[in-house]
Write a structure and sequence with these properties.
InterPro entries: HTH_AraC (IPR018060). There is one protein chain. By secondary structure, the protein is of the alpha+beta class. It has two domains: about 5-180, Jelly Rolls (Sandwich), CATH 2.60.120; about 190-245. The protein has ten helices and eleven strands. It has helices at about 10-15, 105, 115-125, 135-150, 155-175, 180, 190-205, 210-215, 220-235, 235-245; strands at about 5-10, 25, 30, 45, 50-55, 60-65, 65-70, 75-80, 85-90, 95-100, 130. It has a six-stranded antiparallel sheet with strand order 2-3-10-5-8-11. Strand 2 and strand 3 form a beta hairpin. The longest helix is centred in the C-terminal third of the chain and has 20 residues, at about 155-175.
Length: about 240
């Protein structure tokens, strides 16, 4: 029987699990615990929000669009709405801050034209970026954002948070994610990886068979695709099937 990847519909849990002094409405959450929700351990999930994890201490392993990353503090992990996400392991000493931004809030950050497209592309290409020697601006951003979240004044809080986050992404994260590098022509392997990730995001809810993606990407055989699949994801086709079964 075909299995599907559920969306992590975080809005349903906001009122029940998140106190008002940790959020602005249900569009932005700022959390101190290592993960925003214990359900992340049950992934993978397709996110219906933008997720940003700032690691102050420790490390974790995550899967983003079926590619495994190791994040070691200090660093930032950003996962865009619509991407597949799974939290694999956490170190016992992990200390982090997690920011969840609704799709509506994110739409005001990542438009469909110009620099916004390049920033999205750069984040998808490098979702984990180190902050060694660069953490101070992000600490300042978090402190200002926390003041907004805790402010008793309700007027313009969301707008202020949006503009503050815009400044963070376009004035600071823009450089860390090598947006200028996102403008250079892709290599043949990078283009193939991009197409695979696009197919995965589009069809993964319904299709888990490696042969399906081999056909979609015009590989001569499943064996040839399997070699690429392992290089791109770190998993063999058999390990992929076992993980999803």
């Amino acid at each position: 029987m075909e299995k599907t990847v559920p969306y992590l519909r975080w809005r349903r849990a906001v009122e029940r699990r998140t106190p008002p002094d940790c959020r602005i409405g249900d569009d932005l959450l700022l959390l101190r615990q290592p993960r925003p929700d214990m359900e992340f351990e049950m992934g993978p999930f397709r996110l219906d929000m933008t997720l940003a994890i700032y690691l102050r201490q420790g490390s974790c392993r995550v899967m983003i669009d079926m590619v495994e990353y190791t994040a070691t503090a200090p660093c930032m992990v950003v996962v865009m709405a619509g991407q597949l996400f799974q939290l694999v392991t956490l170190s016992g000493d992990m200390e982090s801050r997690t920011i969840l931004m609704s799709e509506a809030f994110s739409a005001g950050l990542f438009g469909a034209r110009g620099p916004a497209v390049l920033l999205q592309r750069a984040i998808r290409r490098s979702p984990v970026v180190g902050l060694a020697g660069d953490a101070a601006p992000f600490e300042t951003y978090l402190a200002l954002l926390e003041n907004l979240v805790h402010s008793p004044l309700r007027t313009f809080r969301l707008e202020a948070a949006r503009h503050l986050t815009l400044s963070m992404f376009y004035g600071y994260s823009y450089r860390l994610h090598d947006v200028d590098g996102a403008e250079r022509p892709r290599t043949k392997q990078e283009e193939l990886c991009r197409r695979f990730e696009e197919e995965l995001r589009t069809h993964y809810m319904r299709e888990r068979q490696v042969a399906f993606y081999a056909g979609r990407l015009s590989f001569p055989s499943q064996s040839v695709f399997g070699k690429y699949f392992k290089r791109a994801t770190g998993l063999s086709p058999r390990a992929f099937r076992n993980r999803m079964s």
